[in-house]
Request: fold
Amino acid sequence: MGIEKSYDEILRGLDGKELVEVDALGNKIRVLGKVDATAGEPLYLTIDRSLQEIAQKELSDKKGALRQ
Reply:
């Protein structure tokens, strides 16, 4: 929900994978291939201090949102 949803694909990165050969009992024999995970990109958000102060004053203990 929110900003994270808009940037989800960028923030998420890629999962790593490993292809493993196992025996009939499920014991790992050897690794056949591996792809390392890739971290997502960082997202930096800023807060407008004066807008935040106005929001706190106007909303007090009520629920709501403001936009500039």
Q: What stands out?
A: The chain has a mean pLDDT of 89. The beta strands are 17-22, 28-35. The radius of gyration is 23 Å. The helical segments are 3-6, 8-12, 49-59.
